[in-house]
Amino acid sequence: MREAAEQRGGLREKTDINLLVVLGATASGKTRLGVELARRLNGEIISADSRQVFRGMDLGTGKDLSEYGEVPFHLIDIAEAGSEFSLFAFQRHFFSAFADIQRRGRLPLLVGGTGLYLDAVLRGYRLIEVPPDPSLRARLATLDDATLRARLRRLKPEQHNTTDLMERARLVRAIEIAEGERAAAAELPPLPEVRPLVLGLRWERAALRRRIGLRLRERLAQGMVDEVARLHAAGVSWERLEFYGLEYRFIARHLQGALDYDTMLQQLATAIGQFAKRQETFFRRMERQGVEIHWVHAEEEPLEQAMKRMF
Hints:
- There is one protein chain.
- The chain is an alpha/beta fold.
- It folds into two domains: 229 residues, 3-Layer(aba) Sandwich (Rossmann fold); 51 residues.
- It is 55% helix and 10% strand.
- It contains 14 helices and six strands.
- Helix 6 runs parallel beside helix 8 and helix 9 crosses helix 13.
- It is globular.
- The N terminus is likely disordered.
- Belongs to the IPP transferase family.
């Protein structure tokens, strides 16, 4: 621990950072690198994954809890499967964990691949909790989807969550939140100061596709189909499982008889590969918007590369 503390002291003296970020596409090895860095730097992990917050959703979200060992982690298994967990809730929980880790003299590491979660911290989104507004929803119900999408883009020109644009219920809720945020913006308190160093894991695309396929088969062999069946048996609806992302969506369809196993496997692997490309596109957008990401080559001793970036 003394060596870790000394290394962390050198890091703080050189860069004055108070947050280390490890991001990358799915299956890129973010958790492993984050844990290795936490061990060296007397750190604790804060997860930036929109699905790992849910209890009982383990294989489908790639929690890999066995990798953490003695390293403390936060924002994993904090909500019931079947419930909703908003970007506002993530930001609130993040800043609480961030302050707690700092008070104990340790280094917070934000590790994950959910672009909105990462961007909300790194670019300081000004979020508020917006309750449902029945009168606004009644007015929006008279408008078609194209008009609603145009309205959301006017409210949030930087809108980047395409799911909100495609699904009507999410589109209405996104407008509701944007309207509420605009109305309350002047009264928001300042956010805690974050001075980050952002590391990104990068693979050649073909290599990442191979990793995605291998990890998918491993998780299926470990019982991912059974996990989805248990969640549904415990009361999580098929519709909610669709909402929870690709693994749950395609396996739910398989369990309902819409896809045979081999077709499910093929379509799911393809969809995860496409999702990884969207993640990389999001990270490039973050860079264009001012987030400096120090990329490390995942196939060439990423831990040593990461350490060299910091010292």
